[in-house]
Amino acid sequence: MENKVCERLMNMLYIQFVAPDGLEYRIYHDHIEVSVGIGVWENIGKTWEIKKQKSEEKKMNKFKVGDIVRVKPIEELGEINPPLSDGIKKMASTNNEIASVFPYSNNEGEAKAAYFLKGHEGYYFNDSMLEERAYSKDDIFNINVIVPDKVVEIEFYDSKEKMVCHEDDVFDLRKCCFIAIAKHLYKKEYTQEGIEYMATQLTYQKKYVKIVDKALRGYWKKEEEKEKRIREERKREEIQKHQREKRRRYKERRAQRQEMKITEDLKAERAEMVNIIADAINKAKGERKLLKRFKTNS
Description:
By secondary structure, this protein is of the alpha+beta class. The chain has 8 helices and 11 strands. It has helices at about 5-10, 40-45, 55-60, 75, 85-90, 175-185, 190-200, 205-295; strands spanning about 15-20, 25, 30-35, 70, 95-105, 110-115, 120-125, 130, 140-145, 150-155, 160-165. The chain has a 5-stranded antiparallel beta sheet with strand order 7-6-5-4-8. A 3-stranded antiparallel beta sheet has the order 1-2-3, with no helix packed on it. The termini are far apart. Mean pLDDT is about 80; it is low at about 35-40 and about 45-60.
């Protein structure tokens, strides 16, 4: 990496310090471990001696807040020691929005900037890890199914289009994407019938077929990850349920053993009392016999 901060961290695991708010932070070469949101970066900024003057920020920063950037592929990020974290690897080749920018100066006086991406504030990037990404007006940013087989919200980089499937139509997510693009591009010029006609025309253009295919792949990938998390959560719940049932049965068996022990102890005490009483009765009978014999002999 060109970032001197990262180069200084290459020979150590992490830098650890306590911020003025009392929280502990660990700064690795490619990410920072924190337990709170982006609101605490002011404290880290003070540690790094961040300068926030807007005039200087424009000169030293390659990107600004709100820019859509692409994290470079893993092979372009290069080999470093220690290697990239799994979080950085998962974000490689993905498009993200810059949530915040923190310019700073390293020990050599060079102007640098740390970029934090929206939804991934636990990792920071430098200029060499990001690249500009130009998007057209019709690129699909996200697909959000609000009501399954009924309502879909297609998100573009500048706006959103909400699609509602008519009760007489058969829901088709792919067709819905083409209609959303047509509506996004032509809603000011065309009627609803014209938009549907243009959507059909878009299905024959390679550009829009690639856009829709890419968006659908991203959507199904997210759905698979979501289902995987649900399965893992259910499995975890089943394990916890099994463990609770196991503990419950153990407690029941222990209570039964204790109850059986108490019963056996009572029986033993009762048998001992019976023996004591029987011995006392036999002793009394023997004494009476001796007394009677003594009187007879007298």
